[in-house]
User: Fold this.
Amino acid sequence: MVTKTRSLLAIHAHPDDESSKGAGTMARYADEGVRVVLVCATGGEEGEILNPRMEQPGILERMAEIRMAELRTACDILGVDEVYELGYRDSGMPGTESNKRPDAFCNADPQEAVGGLVRIIRAERPEVVLCYDESRGYDHPDHVRVHEWGTEAFNAAGDPQRFPDAGEPWQPGKLYYFATFTKRRFTLLNDAAIAAGMESPYVGWLEKWDEMGFSEPEVTTQVNVAEYIDLRTKALLAHATQIDPDSFWFAVPDEIQKAVYPWEDYTLVSSAVETKTPETDLFAGV
Ligand SMILES: [Zn+2]
Assistant:
């Protein structure tokens, strides 16, 4: 067995987030021999059936179980080495009753949640950690918590004073936030779709973007995933209850994405190693 000397750890909120944010990156690094670790905070219990093909008896009742199976399939496709399920309950969309449930991830004890993440970081010893930014426009309570607690866990993991019972301290070299949903990317895909004579699925999004005045995340790092876009698409499709094959996710064919925007984008938030932005490799300087 080949020992993997580098490790990448991504923290996500729900099953399917790993396939819509940074999936090509995981597939590429896994292919290059990096150990790829996924942490999924919740079971996605609040997910509705978003694919008409899955509107079948018994699906909604078994949503958590089915979504976990979908997650396993997606991770197999992407080459993820290890999946940690934190086991919290999906908090539901902002403003819904589920936000109030005591077992919802958003209501977890912060010490316990951060401590759990610290324990995983110390056990896995990744050089690179990925999590969410402060989430302009998408204020799902579970995503907000992944941002807050993921960032705190990154900072605490190397500190021997914090969580002394959670394993040997380990400070990962770099923390990145996903910068997946940028106006720049969707504008380029939109224009390419129109140029190819297609109806662009992004027109409405782009209009909303201007109305809401979302700020663009700073993109410090672009990982070229051209060779892995097909795996990303397959992984997304594995989330059959959540992803409609006829939806906007697939309206721009892989070939156009490959030609126009073969990158997955990140913001470098913290680095203990020497590196110079812009970067093309999450492990630059490691
Ligand atoms: Zn999510």
About this structure: The longest helix spans residues 63-78.
